[in-house]
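Per your request, structure below.
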């Protein structure tokens, strides 16, 4: 796998339409395929923390494009999509938070707030249908620290949009203005 294959093109990220609409624009760097898929799987399932830098750099480039295009305006708080605590422990940390921190590093007006948690006993969504993913995540995300101002939800993969939708709902009910969801990949 080559970091060059993760390079963000001048026209990325692209607006996508997940099956479940989270109510805000969802932008993705590309399909969950090829080098992007290999990098995400290796980071999450094989402990390849060395991939946080190229994935974080790709996310950073996407955010820089969105800021340059005027799609997003600082100040912004990047809120990583929640990860199951057991998965984060097994992986040696939360990869989405790691990518968000690398992406925001030295970008003026951007901060990272890991403000969302999955409640206990939330199932892993791999292999679940859209309806099952939505039922699995409904009411299972909680806010663990307040976030005010403009927020961008950051995720590694948007599959059905269930996690993004529930995360946006929780953030919006707690006074955050969610501007968009930005994902490294979409299925």
């Amino acid at each position: 796998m080559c970091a060059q294959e993760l390079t963000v093109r001048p026209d990325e990220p692209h607006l996508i339409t997940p099956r479940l609409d989270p109510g805000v624009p969802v932008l993705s760097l590309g399909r969950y395929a090829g080098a992007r898929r290999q990098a995400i799987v290796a980071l999450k399932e094989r402990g390849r923390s060395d991939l946080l830098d190229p994935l974080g750099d790709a996310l950073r480039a996407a955010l820089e494009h969105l800021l340059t295009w005027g799609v997003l305006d600082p100040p912004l708080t990047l809120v990583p999509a929640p990860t199951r605590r057991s998965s984060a422990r097994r992986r040696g940390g939360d990869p989405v938070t790691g990518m968000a921190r690398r992406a925001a590093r030295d970008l003026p007006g951007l901060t990272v707030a890991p403000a969302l948690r999955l409640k206990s006993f939330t199932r892993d969504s791999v292999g679940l249908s859209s309806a099952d993913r939505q039922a699995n995540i409904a009411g299972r995300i909680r806010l663990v620290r307040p976030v005010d101002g403009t927020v961008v939800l950051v995720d590694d993969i948007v599959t059905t949009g269930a996690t993004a939708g529930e995360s946006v709902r929780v953030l919006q009910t707690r006074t955050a203005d969610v501007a968009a969801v930005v994902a490294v990949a979409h299925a």
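The chain has a mean pLDDT of 88.

Regards,
D.
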